[in-house]
Specification:
alpha+beta, Methane Monooxygenase Hydroxylase, Chain G, domain 1, Alpha-Beta Plaits, Double Stranded RNA Binding Domain, 9 helices, 11 strands
């Protein structure tokens, strides 16, 4: 970065931060924080555990947002001063430090911009990620397992937690399907950008002739919905089956019937969970998944009705959205946003933040 580049980048970052400040409105944030602090100080608040958790969670998020705005503004001011001094003194070490810190500031502002765009009802909720292999035989089931690992690594790098609730292993390589519960900041808001059909092109390791193979996998993301008045499930509406958990190749991993499968009779939705230690824990997890899928089904139904009334004939969000090409060249490209990376290995190792952020911005601009 030259001496002339730093002022230009500083100006761009100030402009972007200014737009975020306008959206978040620090004065309004401060007023909301003050009101939430009053609620949190009420000794009777914890009589309602759910309300208390909501209040303290909202308070923490709003404080964090306000602190980030303040810190980033101060960071840009300090970098402008440091750059001016470094130019005057021709201090190359300080100029290099400015370059590094500007890159850090850009990443932080981009992340804050992304979170600012995540204002949907469930964007801050945990998420359920379902990965299913599609056409392509062993390559497809192997691809599905690669995607599962990619999301697990992404969540780990984001400082979140991921729990594999259910896996159906393929007879050959990889998995037929997997269900992963993700808890991290804006889990649903971020990962919902991954919903759709993913395509892999590579020289097949499962083909003796080494021919190029195209395979597909589908990713579905729904928010985790805890038990609320929105989703009421009567005992008469479900059938609960228990069975013995199993691992790859059918190897028994549990000597008791602890795995649970729940069928919602009115909708035909079936969910299963086998990775918890007890039947009760697996049933609770499966019910959590069922509530989330029922809510998502209702939301999709309403969206289809709105689209029909509007006469919208554009491709839906869930269409094929990303290609992972390993041969004859190496590139991962999002077909919606045109964002691309030339290092598929790093992408499969969880480095997908660029894809997630660009998709969130794309989705907002197309809504």
């Amino acid at each position: 970065m030259s001496e002339l580049d730093a002022p230009r980048l500083l100006a761009e970052l100030r402009e972007k931060l200014g737009a975020i400040v306008s959206l978040l409105n620090p004065d309004q944030l401060a007023a909301e924080i003050s009101a939430l602090e009053e609620k949190a100080a009420d000794p009777n608040l914890w009589a309602d555990q759910k309300m208390a958790q909501q209040v303290t969670g909202d308070l923490a998020r709003k404080k964090s947002a306000l602190n980030r705005l303040t810190d980033l503004g101060q960071m840009l001011d300090d970098l402008a001063t440091l750059h001016e001094m470094a130019v005057d003194e021709q201090d190359q070490a300080s100029l290099a430090e400015v370059e590094r810190e500007l890159s850090t500031a850009k990443n932080k502002i981009d992340e804050l911009e992304t979170q600012t765009l995540l204002s949907g009802e469930f964007d801050s909720s945990p998420a359920l990620v379902t990965i299913r292999s599609g056409a392509g035989g062993d390559d497809a089931t192997d691809f599905a397992e690669m995607l599962m690992r990619m999301y697990l690594r992404f969540v780990e790098k984001q400082g979140g937690k991921a729990k594999v609730l259910d896996v159906s292993y393929a007879e050959g390589a990889g998995i037929k399907s997997a269900l992963v519960e993700v808890d991290m900041d804006f889990a649903y808001g971020k990962l919902s950008a991954e919903s759709g059909t993913h395509r892999l092109v590579r020289m097949s390791p499962f083909n003796a002739a080494g021919k190029r193979q195209t395979s597909f996998a589908a990713v579905e993301v729904v928010p985790v919905i805890e038990e609320t008045d929105q989703i009421e499930i009567q005992d008469s509406e479900i059938r609960v089956d228990v069975f013995r958990s199993s691992g790859p190749g059918g190897q028994s991993v549990n000597t008791t019937d602890s795995a649970v499968r729940i069928t919602h009779l009115p909708s035909g939705i079936v969910v299963s969970c086998q990775n918890e230690k007890s039947q009760l824990q697996n049933k609770e997890a499966a019910m959590r998944v069922l509530r989330s899928r029922l809510l998502e089904a209702e939301r999709q139904k309403q969206a289809e009705q709105r689209k029909e009334l509007a006469g919208d004939v554009k491709a839906s969000w869930g269409e094929q959205m990303r290609s992972y090409v390993l041969a004859p060249y190496q590139m991962v490209k999002d077909l919606r946003t045109e964002h691309e990376e030339n290092n598929p290995d790093s992408v499969f190792d969880g480095e997908i933040e660029g894809f997630v952020n660009s998709a969130i911005r794309w989705r907002r601009s197309n809504n």
